[in-house]
Amino acid sequence: MSRFSIIFSALAVSVALSGCGEPQQSAAPTTQAMPVGVVTMKEQTVTLTKELPGRIAASQIAEIRPQVSGIIQSRLFVEGSEVKAGQTLYQIDPATFEANVASAEAAVAKAHASIASKNAKNTRYTELLKINAVSQQDFDEAAASFKEAQADLLTAKAQLKTAQINLNYSKVSAPINGQISKSSVTVGALVGANQTTPLATVTQLDPIYVDLVQSSSELLALKLALKSGAISSDESVQTEVELKLENGSVYSHKGTLQFSEVTVEPGTGSVTLRAQFANPEKLLLPGMYVRAVIVEGVKTDAILAPQRGVSHNNKGQATTMVVNKDGKVETRILQAERTIGANWLVEKGLSHGDQVIIEGLQKIHPGASVQAVPAESATAKAY
Known about the structure:
Belongs to the membrane fusion protein (MFP) (TC 8.A.1) family. The protein is α+β, with helices and mostly antiparallel strands.
């Protein structure tokens, strides 16, 4: 190959290489909005409830004590059994009381006989006084004696009634229906009318009470909300109460709220509320710890935000991210003090129509452009 051919070939290669080295214009990148899953807020009607701690209390308790003194002759009940009002529980030896009744009856009979005699004398002296056959003094004494006999009869009748009452009291009866405890005395024991130790205790378990505790601040907030109309309640209907037992199960019978105390406990700042429940199975026993769910009222314009879309900032304020009308992320500070199911009840910060972001939160920031899609399909698009 000639020297000229070699130079020409080198120039050709140089030209080709220089053409390959010319810069090419790259396509401009396109910005695509990140899809995020949102839930659109809607006003809705919700029933507001409150869970409160409480203790079971018997509706009635009666301590059985003797009204008269004597020896226990017999015990007429089975310990732990159900007793009825008026049922005889103990028999105190009645011999002394029966003798007192007999003596009082004799005194009444004697008083009747004395009245008959003195009444006849008083009648006879009345006629004799008309013809001046007796003196006025004798007549007055006869009349006074008759009235004294009448008073003696009243006294004798009162003593007979007392003796009969004491005889009746020798039978110690149950004052209420309920379940009776173990007996503190046995047959042959001496009991007294003024003793401090009860013979037994009868406890009424059906119906039964639940004493609940609520803070005075919560009660005040509820009353103000009812007064302002933010919450509505039908005062003509008793508030329904649901009970949760110690093991977490729900009690099968629902109760009603009876009343709340009118004073606040200074030490705890709480108010006691009492609910009543049917207890036919005797499942609830005094002293048990329970939790009760009471209905406070109905809110007709409630905004419920999913808990998964709500977080808290460094100040402890509840916050959420929403998609504004410009399609950008915006942070909202919420006023939310209670949960309903899996949602926060929002008092301030959200309104009807707002789009709350609940999916794709880890890839966005305030001010970012996003594409709002229903939460169910956001995952398929974003991931």
